[in-house]
Amino acid sequence: MKGEFDTKDHLVKATAEDVRVFAAVTTDLVRDGVKRHDCYPVAAAALGRTMTGALLFAANLKNKEAVTIKINGGGALGSIVADAVPEGFVRGYVTNPHVDLPAKSPTESNPHGKIDVAGGVGRNGLVTVTRFTGLKKPITGSAEIVSGEIAEDLTNYLATSEQTPSSVGLGVLVGKDLDIISAGGFLIQPLPNASDSSITKLENNLKTIDPVSTMIENGLDAEGIIRELLKGFDQINILSTTDLAFRCHCSKRRIEDTLMTLTEKDLNNLVEDGKAEVVCQFCGKKYQFSKEELVALRNVGLGKVHL
Ligand code: ZN
Fold first, then answer.
1. Which pLDDT tens digit goes with each residue over 206-222?
2. Distance between CA atoms of residues 154 and 146, nearest Å
3. Angle at CA 161, nearest 5°, toward 130 and 201?
4. Å from CA of 279 to ligand 1 middle
5. How far is CA 108 from the centre of its chain?
6. Residues paired with 190 in a beta bridge
7. Residue 291: exposed, middle, or buried by beta-carbon count in 10 A (0-12, 13-18, 19+)?
């Protein structure tokens, strides 16, 4: 965070002429997620991009709806999973946070060298997106991974699986000491009636703008990013701003529900061990269970006690 540009994580929705844009600054929540899961740089960048993508995908959902993005390209990172809700909360994890790959050669715009996200994600697998809406069954779609860089994969997913032409940009800048210097992203969708001149303007802007992590490092907030993306558009309408945070909705009660799905044998083993510790996969929170609690859970699980 840089002095006068000290901004909290936030997402801004805007429209201009025949284009819709969402942009987000996610530096703090990515830092939070990366710390919780002790991610090395490749995992930090992959998790940060996926969580930011999930928040952008959630932005046009209704309250109480949710979206899950799962990236699995067959690479060393395993799966990268993020859940987000339109209220601005996201949680996520990566199967193997300690993957370590050498950075690609440094360039002028990337003096630390580019983190090899695609090398960790792999290019042989799927992006799967599940939307939890008011319908009884969630809607799941998937598309092949095309680059392993995540933003391109989400753009391709929207085009092929949801028939929505769009452009997704995601960036996470990781410092030498593993601190997150900046993180954020954007999602642009030309509306169905968008004119050729709007598309051309957008394409030109996308070619010339800085990477999103650089814009944020330089102090731009989400509205500033939108104004860069929409240079040359007459009227930009800022529709809303939402605060963002890493937040998991796990609870001891939910973990108990999971424990009760274990077999009688497994529950008996836990009781014999005399205690159990269950770690939430999404946020790393540890839940302790005493012998008495495990006995009670086993008895409920076996139908001996009716609560
Ligand atoms: Zn949790």
1. 999 999 999 999 999 99
2. 9
3. 115
4. 8
5. 28
6. 19
7. middle
Ligand 1 centre to CA of 72 (Å) is 21
Q: How far apart are CA 47 and CA 49, in angstroms?
A: 6
**Chain mean position to CA 140:** 17
> Coil, strand, or helix at residue 221?
coil
Q: How many Cα atoms sit within 13 Å of 272 on the Cβ side?
A: 6
* Inter-CA distances, 4 with 171, 239, 249, Å: 22, 25, 33
**For residues 256-284, average pLDDT:** 91
Strand partners, 71: 80, 127
- Ligand 1 geometric centre to CA of 82 (Å): 12
- Region 130-153: mean pLDDT is 93
pLDDT, greater one: 190 or 63: 190
Residue type at 185 in one-letter notation: G
The residues near 248 (Cβ < 8 Å, ≥ 6 apart) are: 91, 280, 282, 283, 285
Burial class (CB in 10 A: 0-12, 13-18, 19+), 237: exposed
Distance 20 CA to ligand 1 centre (A): 33
Residue 255 amino acid letter: I
DSSP code for 274: S
Q: What is the mean pLDDT of residues 108-130?
A: 84
**Residue 149 phi, psi dihedral angles, 5° rounding:** -90, 0
Q: Please report where in the chains the tokens 């001149």 appear, as a residue.
A: 197
DSSP state of 170: E
Average pLDDT value for residue range 71-81: 97
Quote the ligand 1 centre to 94 CA distance (angstroms): 14
Which residue do the tokens 């990566």 mark? 94
At residue 183, does pLDDT exceed 90? Answer: yes
Give me the pLDDT at residue 305, please.
Answer: 52
